[in-house]
Amino acid sequence: MSTLLVSSKGQIVLPAALRRRLGMGAGARLEVIEEPDGLKLRVVRSVATSNLTKMAGMVKAPTRGVPRRLEDFDPASLLARARRAKP
User: Fold this and answer.
1) Mind listing the pLDDT tens digit for each residue in 16-50?
2) Is the pLDDT of residue 61 over 70?
3) What is the reported pLDDT for 57?
4) Which of 5, 6, 14 is nearest to 41 (CA)?
5) Backbone angles phi, psi at 55, to 5 degrees
6) Is pTM beyond 0.70 here?
7) Banded pLDDT at 78 (limits 50, 70, 90)
8) What are the sequence ranges of the domains in the chain?
9) What are phi and psi of 35, to 5 degrees?
10) Residue 13 to residue 26: CA distance in whole angstroms
């Protein structure tokens, strides 16, 4: 456990090892939660937003070849089919 010092401006500094372990860089945000026995700090991780129009065309249906069935991806079915194919 680390002890933090509050500056005259009300700022605290987290130890570098802790910031690295939590993946915090400059501008990282912390949520402060007041609890009966003290304060709790939680790293706020923002979820990146994406424009759906940029995702168009990422997944394409195969245009040729044999259509796949659910059984094509079942390991037990593949093993049984392989055993039947052996002479």
Assistant:
1) 998 899 888 888 899 999 999 999 999 998 777 77
2) no
3) 74
4) 14
5) -90, -10
6) no
7) confident
8) 1-46
9) -120, 165
10) 12
Q: Are 27 and 35 in contact (CB under 8 A)?
A: no
Structure tokens at 16: 């570098």
Classify each residue of 39-57 as buried b or exposed e, where b means 16 or more C-beta atoms within 10 Å of its C-beta: eeeeeeeeeeeeeeeeeee
Q: Name the residue among 6, 46, 7 with its Cα closest to residue 23.
A: 46
Answer CATH for 1-46 from 2.10.260.10, 3.40.605.10, 1.10.1740.10, 2.60.120.260: 2.10.260.10
Token match 């392989």: residue?
82
pLDDT of residue 62: 64
